Amino acid sequence: MGKLAKRVEEIAPFHVMAILDKAKMLQAKGRDVIHLEVGEPDFVAESSVAEAGIDAIQKHNTGYTSATGLPELKRAIALHYQTKYKTTVAPERIVVTPGASGALILLSSLMVDSGNNVLMPDPCYPCNRHFLVQVGAEAKLIKTDSETQFAIDLDDVETHWDDKTTGLWLASPSNPTGAVLDRSYLEGALEKVEELGGHLMVDEIYQGLVYEGEDMTALSISEDIFVINSFSKYFAMTGWRLGWIVVPEWAIEGATKLAQNLFISAPTVSQYAAIQALQPAVLEECEKRRQTLDKRRLFLLAGLARLGLPVVAPAQGAFYVFVDVSHITDNAMSWCLGLLEEYYVALTPGDDFGFHNAQKYVRFAYTCDEDRLAEALFRIEQYMNREK
Ligand SMILES: Cc1ncc(COP(=O)(O)O)c(C=O)c1O
């Protein structure tokens, strides 16, 4: 038997995998499982985007690109920031990566030395912790609660900062809560981090999917923020594995060296498709989808209110609703497993996103249509009544 590196032990598997495995088993037995656990849109890339990908293959545009991405794509991303977010971003500051995941791996290598730590909220996107483990560093999670809408109290940044801390990582809209950080909060966060001499990263992978509050980019506040983004969510291109990071001017050279060494380049076919994804007609379609998601969101929120299930974070963006089930169970994970086994509805337990009060919460993803949401709510009601 081979011996794995020690760091592998520090990486937790997704708890939702247990749910997914069970869901697959039930489906194989012919059960009608409703998937509200999956963090990916039920849409696919708009058809002209797929065609641009096919065209790239047919034209044999399939070799490596330059390490930081096709210049046309970087220009198209910069134009998108300019037109939609009124923010000037020099294309040279954009590094195209294999998904936001690639961008987060690059950022970890770029800004965090082994033995360092980075502050982030508990709960947050779990892989962030593990990207840091990869570089011999660690995440320092700061507890958050519904009272602060699951945003870190900025005074806590100072108390948790130590001589090994190199930065603060945030996400807006947030996975798992759907909450949006507003401009003044981000300005405050930047001020704090600058005082403390670290870097600020804002993960904007759900950018565009905002229903309440300002759909913005942290880049409009300062050029000294690292911003992560992706074609996965708003553009419904999860499997195309394409994202990007915007870095400050002073970090371009370092980021380029890392991009060359870590990935050589991001998937070429996907890059050609992504140029098309940023064209006005496709953006119009994305906006229609956002409106569809908003309708589902309101439908789900009304249904949860009817069932007496408290939504604990403002569901302003992404496609998630974060719900407190602690009045029903003291273990959200086993509650989710029971719901799946008996009523075939899959949710993600809070344990996947952190530790603080994690067993109290579940995440709903409204990545299916209203009929399915209605059916899911009906089954959840039955499950709750059955448990009484
Ligand atoms: C907050 C957040 N960041 C990053 C990612 C990684 O996304 P991808 O690598 O598909 O672009 C996800 C995926 O769900 C996410 O929710």
Overall description:
With 388 residues, the protein is of the alpha/beta class. It has two domains: 6-44 and 282-383, Alpha-Beta Complex (Aspartate Aminotransferase, domain 1), CATH 3.90.1150.10; 47-278, Aspartate Aminotransferase, domain 2 (3-Layer(aba) Sandwich). It is 41% helix and 14% strand. The protein has helices at residues 16-28, 47-58, 71-85, 99-111, 127-134, 154-160, 183-196, 252-263, 268-277, 280-306, 332-343, 370-387; strands at residues 34-35, 94-97, 117-122, 138-143, 165-171, 199-203, 226-230, 243-246, 320-324, 345-346, 348-349, 361-365. Strands 2-8-7-6-5-3-4 form a seven-stranded mixed sheet, with helices on both faces. A three-stranded antiparallel sheet has the order 9-12-11, covered by helices on one side. The protein has a two-stranded parallel ribbon with strand order 1-10. Helix 5 (127-134) links the parallel strand 3 (117-122) and strand 4 (138-143). The radius of gyration is 21 Å and the shape is globular. The mean pLDDT is 96. The structure holds pyridoxal-5'-phosphate. Pyridoxal-5'-phosphate binds at residues 39, 99-101, 125, 171, 175, 203, 205, 230, 232, 238, 243. This is Aminotransferase. It is an enzyme of class 2 (transferase).
